[in-house]
Amino acid sequence: MIGIDVGGANLKIADDSGIHVIYAPLWTGQKIAGLLEPFRSGTEQAAVVMSGELADCFPTKQDGIGWIFQEVTKVFPEAVFFGNDGNFHTRPDPSLAAANWLASAVLLEKTHEGQIFLDMGSTTTDIIPLHDVPGFYGYTDLRRLREGFLVYTGMLRTNIATQINHAVIGGISTPLAREYFACSADAHLVLGYISPEDYTVPPPDGGEKNLDGAMRRLARCACADVDEIGISGCTAVADAFWKAQQSEVTKCLQKAEEMGCPEGVITAGIGGRLFAGKPGHTSLDKEFGTYADGFPAFAVRELAG
Q1: DSSP one-letter string for 193-222
Q2: Are 304 and 1 in contact (CB under 8 A)?
Q3: Which domains does the chain have, with CATH numbers?
Q4: Residue among 164, 206, 163, 160 nearest 186 (CA)
Q5: Cα 141 from Cα 98, distance rounded (Å)
Q6: Cα–Cα distance between 119 and 80 in angstroms, integer?
Q7: Closest Cα to residue 217, out of 177, 255, 245, 251?
Q8: Could you write out the DSSP letters of every residue in 30-83?
Q9: Whose CA is closest to 121, among 197, 187, 198?
Q10: CA 283, CA 267: separation in Å to the nearest integer?
Q11: Nearest one of 49, 134, 48, 138 to 85, comparing CA atoms
């Protein structure tokens, strides 16, 4: 059996060899059946979670659920789909919308009850108290946003301008352009938190996925070129972004702790490592290895198996 997590930007597959992450932006018309075909060899079974139904190419989330269901079952006709009701389904039920976080929580509560699961991916951050997980059955993304369990900020795709509106450059508080000039991947590349190989999304300007390209895009946030504000100015924009991003996630973690989860935080996802070094925080890398980078796909595979 394989596990599949169909996101709006990434397709993640868990099999015996580990996690496979494929950039597959659904809003561009990307078909996923062809991407899944190579994984059919040796298995006819698949367990699936999704969040890609929210992609704006679909008129409604139910339309997205139906499309994803059809694409997956073209390759795996007997696939089972995990819903936010805690059950597996064989039809495109409305409960399938954004249930990937719940698969992780159901699996982890068995061994990590009383802790908080923080999964920071390319686009979003899930914060899940591993305490009375059935109490979260039926939670939608809308409700999770309202209650602080879904933070729409991530390591690669977040628009810099949505997180900060100014940075201190050369000792001067400088307003930033409200434009999509740079993304979180640029900030984290400049700060050394990701490598060029981790930069798997298209840059805002379609340019290079390297330090020079990232610096140029960060300078553009201040309506400048790199030679106007220097490397230190570009780094200041990146640092201001990360501090704001970290602060937003930390506030939501504190709220989750107040719900009765005093046993610390376990982290996963491409951004989880940045929080793993804090007191009381540990990374799932130690327990699950590379599966931690696509944990919902691994979790749904384990639950179905």
Answers
A1: SS-GGG--SPPTTS--SSHHHHHHHHHHHT
A2: yes
A3: 2-100+293-304 (3.30.420.40)
A4: 160
A5: 7
A6: 23
A7: 177
A8: --SHHHHGGG-TT---EEEEE-GGGSTTSSSHHHHHHHHHHHHHHH-TT-EEE-
A9: 198
A10: 5
A11: 138
257-274, pLDDT tens digit by residue? 888 777 789 999 999 989
d(CA 64, CA 56): 9
The predicted structure's pLDDT at residue 280 = 83
Between β-strands 281-283 and 125-129, what pairing exists: parallel, antiparallel or unpaired?
A: unpaired
- Structure tokens, 149: 């369990």
Tokens 């059919």 belong to 40
Q: Please identify which residue in the block is written with the tokens 């073209």.
A: 74
Name the pTM for this structure: 0.93
Place of tokens 């379609």: 206
Per-residue pLDDT reduced to its tens digit, 113-169: 999 999 999 999 999 999 899 999 999 999 999 999 999 999 999 999 999 999 999
Average pLDDT over residues 174-184: 98
